[in-house]
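Hey team,

Filing this mostly as a record. A colleague (T.K.) asked me to run one chain through the structure pipeline before their review meeting, and I want the input and output archived in the tracker in case anyone asks later how it was produced. No errors, nothing strange. Just documentation.

Input sequence:
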Amino acid sequence: MPDNNKAPGPFEFDYIVAGAGTAGCLLANRLSANPENRVLLIEAGGRDNYHWIHIPVGYLYCIDNPRTDWCFRTEPAPGLNNRSLIYPRGKTLGGCSSINGMLYIRGQARDYNRWAEITGDDAWSWDNCLPDFMRHEDHHGLDAGDPEDSAHKRFHGHGGEWRVERQRLHWQVLEDFAEAAVQAGVPRTKDFNRGDNEGVDYFEVNQRAGWRWNTSKAFLRSASKRPNLTVWHSTQVLSLEMNTDGQKPKCTGVRVADANSGNETLATASREVILSAGSIGSPQLLQLSGIGPSDLLQELSIPVVADLPGVGENLQDHLQIRSVYKVRNALTLNTMANSLWGKARIGLEYLLKRSGPMSMAPSQLCAFTRSSDEYDYANIQYHVQPLSLDAFGQPLHNFPAITASVCNLNPTSRGSVRIRSRDPLEAPAIAPNYLNTAEDRKVAADSLRVTRRIAGQPAFSKYLPEEYKPGSQYQTDEDLSRLAGDIGTTIFHPVGTTRMGRADDAMAVVDSHLRVRGVNGLRVVDASVMPVITSGNTNSPTLMIAEKAARWILAGD
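Output structure:
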């Protein structure tokens, strides 16, 4: 086992948490706060000591990098005109919070009220989730005592582990795009996180003084000093250990392998095993362990422990459609970063001030609005950037431009995650099925029209914007939905693959307290339990889920 193992052999614990990502780090902190609890946290990736994890713009070097990313790819998707996409998932301490966009967005109150309706449990209502968001929050708006806006006190926490700050940069071209959005009917907002996120403003970010603030720093840094918490990094969970002698199978531990030596060992849990391996890893581990659709398991000669047809189904994600506009008389990152002097200036600013482009989250300006009058709530979200490129990982264009990415917040398309073999090291088949419904294709076409309406407002006209992608010659619903398939890409929000639900819901994998149906001693606590995707970025809702679950686990509920 790794050199950070503090547990004497045999490897016996009260709780085992599989996955040291967004949810797992918080769970390890909360469960180990009681010194009587022996807690094991397991992470397949290594330490989060790669310098690009901590410099905000370093996501460019962490995504699709095997040091920090699982480097998954999706199955070719008909809705994307048979394209396959990279599908980043964090593989390091901190998980996706170490490689994601650092954007603090909770979603809408209606999301959580719908969860409460689906599960029949009011614990998931907005009013009952808000305290769990606030419990770990450290919001900049409360730093100086009483804020001018007293609503901060009602909606935000202070002194928690999870830091939320303003961005440390300014772009005039984004200011003018925001004003154009207002002219197009999108209201200004001061806060996207009060339950109704409609409006335009800059994203708030999970950073501290210009550095990325991941969940490893937030929740593990102090907790790792506790003698009752053991952290195994570079350790692959191969399968769950199941006892099937009783009337109901029980999860008693996990079988793991050291990533360096390949040596296998068994760790046991006297109370619970908690899967926090994410929307890809958690269903994969369940299926490998005989918990999932019986037809799939039998096809792969895996003994069926629990026939749960919903394991790996209900995959949802936000597909971003990236419109690019050439602009004139504007400073954008394209022009700054395409010269040696510009790069030197960018580096120097970050070195001296921890500000500027190197402190940038992947997106800076945010807007939530409606794709058409059919909706009485914001159903699309913008991530706007003062830069452009052909695809992630490609060089910036050599002309000044901005990118206005728009995503459907409430997609109706559903996909799946299914193992291909009994080999735990083989990546599963990931099929998000983007743009698989007529409703999703209509929202895609309408959202591109909203982008054009914003770009055509007087506040933005001084830049003489020219639509570079998808191209103004495309006008019909059919054209625009097809072009959306050409330029759409994941915004890295997979959820739902072990969703929670009522007892009579055959496709529900976990109950409303996240206990796996038909199996004792096993829960799933991560984004995979969401029955429907939230209306915004999914990292912060995942932390809220873990906060709530930790209380239940400690109480034995």
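Quick notes for T.K.: The longest helix spans residues 438-455. The mean pLDDT is 94.
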